[in-house]
């Protein structure tokens, strides 16, 4: 056998390994499911109260009746899809956690009803909110039911076809800026692109679609719309007093309700990627973390610097107080990953999580079916993502074992790849990065692997000369942590259950060791930086070499997604010349001056 033949076989094996997906592998994995079941069986908090909250919603009842319809208009009958999506996920989760085929059957009935009925998500731009938010949520329901035999035998093929032909089609169409309303695509706020990125990634994982998965990762790194991480976190500023870099979110000047939605959607994308072996949490020198810390600080009542933000429909000179203190899911997940999995000190995320828990009914993070409105957040973080001290200790032990026994990269698993040392670092230079000499992130000495993350991150924020070594340390740490915290390293269908049998006291609002500060803190006027230039990020095209077929649950091709014909413009796509009345979901900034040349899709 020649060297060439050996290399060819090795290349083929490596490609096969790298394209394998973990299932379930969207927001929760088999490891998470095993942990949650153990906590519920031991009646531990906050899992027990959170699950009681979920099972008490309208969406988790066996009596729920689907409302499938053929054509949707989000502002007219969108609630039919929102509520049915909430029910499908809630019922699928009940089956996953407590068993009982009646719950799975009820969820399947909803999914198949829509699969047999739905023809269009709408003809106006709001259709892309349906493809984004509800596409992501439906994919999570389908992923939980992926191996349910009656669904596999009858309904799954039709459901998957709907997800690919309608939801994924529209999501990618929007991300690629092919809709006529996107003639100036940066006037769509970050939440629009982030929800469609989350939807496309979720459907890609559901259907084992490596090309679409890679497409979303590529867009996260180098896209030219506001969902790309360099634009979703538009500027890096310096925290008053500490000098720590914070990330100004693209929608902070708009209102805090939408800005909080951006945090939630970024966390969804990062968690799905993490479950599949890619560390977006650390991408672009922890840009997402900096954005979460900025948002949390401001929404707890403290000052933040603000860089003037402008686009074709907005000119923001300060962080908006509209919706300040908004409570939305996502903070359990952010705290879990940064503070517990990686052992970082994230003071504002910690304080804001405590604040949201104290503000919520029941003391746990709510979720779809309990939030009201458009049901645009999956949530239920206290049930799905919360870790107690025993869980963290187990992670630390596993991490230490992995660090001492791992040889680096194993062909049998996908290791987490930290992109901080990659070319995506160039994207982070789109704004002025203000470095700090302070030790911005520190770590308890209980975990050597997590210490590497904290030390490396501190180096990234303290000195430009340390960035290369810090990035290398982060990359090495990612590989070690992946074997301890990643479901990719635990592909067994029956991961070990928690060894704990003791029941801690019920969690209070200060579960994480610190009371949240008063939100009545006086906020001084926020400074404006009027003339700062914001360079655009580099753009990388979607994959140009498309396969003739790919392994989804149905027979289809990516070519139908990426090479679709341009949709015929409708009346709602034609640029308007008057300011429309604000929609109840997303109003127009009241200080906006309309130039008569651009339509409004905010």
Automatic annotation (TrEMBL):
GO cellular component assignments: periplasmic space
UniProt signal peptide: 1-19
Superkingdom per UniProt: Eukaryota
Compositional bias of kind Basic residues: 580-589
Span list, region Disordered: 487-551, 567-602
Ranges for domain Alginate lyase: 61-229
A Pfam family per the record: Alginate_lyase
Keyword Phosphoprotein annotated: no
Membrane-traversing stretches: none
Biased composition (Low complexity): 487-511
Positions with biased composition (Polar residues): 526-551
Keywords from the UniProt entry: Lyase, Signal
An example molecular function term from Gene Ontology annotations: lyase activity
Basic and acidic residues bias (residue ranges): 590-602
Protein's recorded name: Chondroitin AC/alginate lyase
Species in which this protein is naturally found: Lophium mytilinum
């Amino acid at each position: 056998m020649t060297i060439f033949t050996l290399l060819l076989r090795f290349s083929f094996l490596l490609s096969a390994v790298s394209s394998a997906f973990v299932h379930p592998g969207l927001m929760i994995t088999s490891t998470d499911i095993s942990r949650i079941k153990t906590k519920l069986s031991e009646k531990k908090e906050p899992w027990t109260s959170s699950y009681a909250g979920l099972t008490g919603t309208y969406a988790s009842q066996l009596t729920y009746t689907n409302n499938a319809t053929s054509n949707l208009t989000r502002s007219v009958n969108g609630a039919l899809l929102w509520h049915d999506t909430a029910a499908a996920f809630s019922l699928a989760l009940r089956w996953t956690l407590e068993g009982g085929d009646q719950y799975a059957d009820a969820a399947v009935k909803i999914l198949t009803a829509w699969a047999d009925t739905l023809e269009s998500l709408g003809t106006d731009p709001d259709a892309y909110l349906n493809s984004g938010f509800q596409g992501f949520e439906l994919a999570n329901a389908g992923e939980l039911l992926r191996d349910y035999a009656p669904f596999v035998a009858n309904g799954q093929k039709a459901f998957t076809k709907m997800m690919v032909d309608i939801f994924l089609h529209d999501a990618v169409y929007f991300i690629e800026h092919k809709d006529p309303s996107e003639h100036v695509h940066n006037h769509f706020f970050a939440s629009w692109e982030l929800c469609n990125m989350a939807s496309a990634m979720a459907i890609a994982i559901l259907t084992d679609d490596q090309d679409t998965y890679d497409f979303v990762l590529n867009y996260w790194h180098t896209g030219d719309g506001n969902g790309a991480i360099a634009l979703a976190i538009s500027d890096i500023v310096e925290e008053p007093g500490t000098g720590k870099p914070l990330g100004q979110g693209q929608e902070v000047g708009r209102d805090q309700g939408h800005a909080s939605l951006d945090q939630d959607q970024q966390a969804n994308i990062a968690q799905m990627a993490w479950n599949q072996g890619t560390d977006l949490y650390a991408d672009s020198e922890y840009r997402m973390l900096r954005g979460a810390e900025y948002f949390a600080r401001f929404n707890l009542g403290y000052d933040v610097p603000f860089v003037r933000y402008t686009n074709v429909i907005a000119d923001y000179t300060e962080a908006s107080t509209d919706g300040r203190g908004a409570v939305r899911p996502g903070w359990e997940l952010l705290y879990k990953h940064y503070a517990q999995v990686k052992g970082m000190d994230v003071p504002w995320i910690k304080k804001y999580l405590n604040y949201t828990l104290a503000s919520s009914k029941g003391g746990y993070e709510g979720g779809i079916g309990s939030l009201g409105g458009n049901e645009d957040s999956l949530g239920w973080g206290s049930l799905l993502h919360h870790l107690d001290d025993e869980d963290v200790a187990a992670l630390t032990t596993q991490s230490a074992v992995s660090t001492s026994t791992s040889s680096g990269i194993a062909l049998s698993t996908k290791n987490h790849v930290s992109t901080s040392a990659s070319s995506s670092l160039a994207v982070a230079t789109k704004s002025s990065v203000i470095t700090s000499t302070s030790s911005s992130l520190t770590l308890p000495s209980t975990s050597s692997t997590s210490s590497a993350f904290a030390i490396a991150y501190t180096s990234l924020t303290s000195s430009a000369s340390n960035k290369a070594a810090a990035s290398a340390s982060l990359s090495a740490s990612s590989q070690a942590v992946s074997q301890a915290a990643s479901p990719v390293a635990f592909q067994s269908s029956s991961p070990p259950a928690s060894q704990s049998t003791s029941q801690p006291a019920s969690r209070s609002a200060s579960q994480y060791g610190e009371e949240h500060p008063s939100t009545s803190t006086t906020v001084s006027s926020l400074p404006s930086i009027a003339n700062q230039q914001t360079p655009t990020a580099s753009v990388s095209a979607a994959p140009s070499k498309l396969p003739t077929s790919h392994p989804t649950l149905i027979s289809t091709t990516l070519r139908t997604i990426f090479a679709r014909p341009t949709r015929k413009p409708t009346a709602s796509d034609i640029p308007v010349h008057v300011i429309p009345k604000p929609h109840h979901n997303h109003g127009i900034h009241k200080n906006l001056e309309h130039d008569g040349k651009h339509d409004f899709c905010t």
